[in-house]
Design brief:
Length: about 325
């Protein structure tokens, strides 16, 4: 038995460093088609690299916005600023509660918000979170919270990309990287918002589906709610508008609403305001700038009406 333990230990002492070195070499020099389980893209879609870099310019904000691409494409920090709110948008592509928790663990104390608006899109409570984890590993620093996130997701892509990301951090591979504010039709706005060049959606039929929420995503979500409660930070949950053809495709959307209301104040803007699929959206999920402005102004009206925060400037039409 003693010999077995010694041999196993020696084997691990050899294979772990060998695996890390081999994975780093393979991740750096092999073509993408040959490394499907290492997906490391600095400056990838969504401007997360710019958003994380921008955090150093913000602290003690009035509002912190969390959530998926519906957050960073749907909550325009300029509109909130005009209405007296100092706001930072910490949304990221396909962000699930597991990634939200990791980001809050890193940056909540720095940003120190009076209010958190958490954009809760039902799908982010049903998916595994792999896509978002890869985005954060490549575009943010990696630490204990990255490791905790990887263990919760428990996927080989996340593990491999994290190992590769840690070696890149150690070697300072991305120190000279600079992400342009304008990439294609996207324009990064200071404070975390990404403005899309105006375009319009042509609605298509959606298949009817039942929403099934993941237990481990709800567990992380509960931890977030408790974290904010412990720090006496107000929390509002918002289901941002999506095209009606998409919204109506979920068979049990009322179920999702009932779950969210158990956690905190919840506003489903698909039921509060009426938008036109062809005029106010640019694809099957996201508001165009016309829709963003209507949605944000209505949300600010609601915050003002309910005196969630004292506004420095009165809302003006």
């Amino acid at each position: 038995m003693k010999k077995f333990i010694v041999n196993t230990t020696l084997f691990l002492l050899f294979t772990i460093p060998f695996y890390i070195v081999s994975l780093t070499f393979w991740g750096r020099y092999s073509p993408s088609i040959l490394k499907p389980n290492i997906i490391y893209k600095v400056g990838s879609y969504g401007h997360l690299y710019s958003r994380i870099s921008d955090i150093k310019n913000y602290k003690d904000v009035d509002i912190l916005i969390l959530g998926s691409s519906h957050a960073y494409r749907g909550f325009d920090t300029r509109i909130f600023s005009k209405n007296g709110y100092k706001t930072f948008n910490l949304g990221s592509s396909a962000q699930t509660p597991i990634q939200t928790k990791a980001l809050l663990d890193r940056y909540l104390d720095r940003l120190n918000p009076k209010l958190v608006i958490y954009e809760v899109y039902p799908t982010t409570f049903a998916i595994d979170g792999v896509e978002s984890s890869l985005d954060i590993i490549a575009n943010d620093k990696n630490d204990f919270h990255s490791l905790e996130m990887a263990f919760k997701i428990n996927n080989v892509k996340t593990y491999n990309t994290l190992i590769y990301g840690l070696t890149c951090d150690l070697l300072g591979s991305n120190k000279s990287f600079s992400e342009p504010a304008i990439k294609g039709d996207d324009n990064y706005i200071s404070g975390g918002f990404v403005e899309k060049k105006i375009s319009y959606y042509q609605p298509k039929d959606f298949k009817k589906e039942e929403l099934l929420l993941s237990d481990y995503q709800l567990e992380s979500f509960s931890e977030i709610v408790q974290m904010l409660k412990t720090k006496n930070i107000k929390l509002i949950l918002v289901y941002a508008p999506i095209p009606k053809v998409n919204y109506d495709s979920t068979i049990n959307s009322k179920y999702f609403d009932s779950v969210m209301r158990k956690y905190s104040t919840f506003y489903n803007f698909n039921e509060i305001i009426s938008l036109n699929d062809s005029i106010h959206f640019y694809d099957s999920n996201h508001l165009n700038q016309n829709g963003v402005e209507i949605f944000n102004k209505e949300l600010i009206k609601l915050l003002n009406k309910n005196k969630v925060l004292t506004l420095k400037n009165e809302y003006k039409k």
